[in-house]
Amino acid sequence: MGEAAEKLTASDPFQMAEVSVETQLAVERFLHRQAEILDEKVWDDWLALFTGDGHYWMPAREDQTDGEGMPNIFWENRNMMQMRINRNNHPQAHSQAPNNRLCHVVSNVIIEDEAPNGDIIVRSRFHCAEYLRYEVRNFTGKYRHVLNKSDNSYQIQLQRVDLVNREGPYEYVLQWWL
Amino acid sequence: MTWTDSDIAALVEPDRAHRKAYVDPDLFDLEMERIFERAWVYIGHESQVENPGDYYLARVGRQPMMMTRDHNGEIHVLYNRCPHRGAQLCSARQGNAGKRIRCSYHAWMFNLDGSLDSIPAIDGYDGTALKIDGEDFQVQKAERATNYRGFWFASLAEDGISLEDHLGEARAGFDQLIDRAPGGETEVVGECFHMIQQSNWKIFLENQLDASHPGATHESTGVAAMMVERDIREAGEAPPMSYGFLSDFARLGIDGWGKFGTVGHPNGHCTLEGYMGLRPDDPDTNEYVKCMYDAYGEDRAEEILGVNLHHSLIYPCMSIQPPLQQLRTIRPLGPDRTLSEIWHFRLKDAPEAIYQRALGYYYLVNSPSTMVNADDLFNWWKVQHGLESQGGDWVSFHRNAGFDVIDGDLRKSPDGSMSEMPMRHMMHVWRDYMTANGEGA
Known about the structure:
The complex is a heterodimer.
Chain A: H1 3-10, H2 21-40, H3 43-48, E1 50-59, E2 72-76, H4 78-89, E3 101-114, E4 120-132, E5 135-150, E6 153-163
Parallel strand pairs in A: 1-6
Antiparallel strand pairs in A: 1-2, 3-4, 4-5, 5-6
Chain B: H1 5-9, E1 12-13, E2 16-18, H2 20-23, H3 25-36, E3 41-45, E4 54-60, E5 63-69, E6 75-79, E7 94-96, E8 101-102, E9 109-110, E10 116-118, E11 144-148, E12 151-155, H4 163-167, H5 172-179, E13 186-188, E14 193-197, H6 201-208, H7 214-217, H8 219-234, H9 243-251, E15 262-264, E16 270-272, H10 283-296, H11 298-305, E17 311-314, E18 318-321, E19 326-334, E20 337-347, H12 352-366, H13 372-387, E21 394-396, E22 405-407, E23 410-412, H14 421-435
Antiparallel strand pairs in B: 1-2, 2-21, 3-12, 4-5, 4-7, 5-6, 8-9, 9-10, 11-12, 13-20, 14-20, 15-16, 15-23, 16-17, 17-18, 18-19, 19-20, 22-23
Helix pairs in contact in B: 8-9, 10-11
């Protein structure tokens, strides 16, 4: 199991850490900025949100404790993210043209754990509307982020995304991260 | 409209098919009656119902079915319908019913083989025609159900060709899926992805052996993967082997796929010969080959590994890719809606890296975030959209038409071609199923 997945598994998913207002605000700002980066498709900034070994993870089942070595809806390191960016920006990515429009709202931000070095585990809820070819589709679920403190902000070591309808069936293919 | 046999036969010509075969709702009902509710349709692998009391739902044509395992370990395929008032018995996609299946409506209790166990307050039936062992009061069984090496099928026709005869040589897809395991067994990985294709079921089957589409449809993904492989190499590292599944789309180009031969088999099945590194020369594969030698001896292992098969399409319902340890089955929901189930397998006693490679393919090509199938699904929807229009009546399958190579009861594409033989072959078999009172080809 990866180090970040271990941290997430060890953390109590109902815990509410006592944190300063400044920490709460800084974490919320980080999550809001990530949502904005997705909505505005600022891909250089997106990659910079993640640590070198960071993963974006959408498990296929609720009871999964790791993304490695088992089926997932998303399990992407920075190489895979770069591939997705290359692909969706390619002129022949016909199923993605014209590209979608996304609108995220992130809320219910609860910091689960703050380590002495400032690393954070935080859970939140999201709602995302996607507009593609005259249709709006809605996605909603839970985020859990493992954040490493870096300089004045954070970097994502692991982002777990539990979609409420994870078992499908899928009438669509998710081409961007939610 | 009412379709006569001659109306239907006129929809299929030697090198083209009429658009109505893909869009007409009455024809769709006839397809369900004459193909899916008669032919052998895949239900699932025995390991999906591993324990007594387990059930797993499946759809055969328009019929809601379930596969169950009884407390003697026997597997059954039943209609998911209570014989009392008709309520669905099991509602979750899968589960364990315990000792008995209890109908939620009036608590009639059934054994896992479908037989009626008990009815509450049964004295109310004294003096009535209800008999606890009467045929009308049991959960109905599929007319026929059997398995090929653990892969279960049902046919809702009382009589007909046996499963083994139906599969014929195309059963090599299953053999390969099992024999390639050093432990002689394949285990289904519990997670199945379900995708709804907004297109006719035949469009999916036609795409499976369509050699001229990958380089065109998947160009953007191929190029994107190649760029990342280059970046990784420039950083002095080796890209994961699974990325090659994608970069091949760009590497082979549009016309590079003709080297993989296709074969049409009796009853509509088709096979595609190997590509995608069936036997690459890398340490993981070499370790795997050694495991195979140890398990089977060199001769038998070479015989298994030497089978040149990438893809086995079992008409009308599934596609098996043994080297990628993957199986897809389709359940038509309407003329323009098809549910697909995508399963993958672990080869018993094979090195973990071999599973990781199959998992890489499963993720990159068939997960709900796949960049590959995204473009397929969109093409299929666009085809459906076009065929619903009056902008033309015919679907062209002219590539290399008239040049099939006949070899006994097999029909092969000419060497080096990207022939549309598989599509022509399947439509001819479709016509036979649809016009021979459902007797099949």
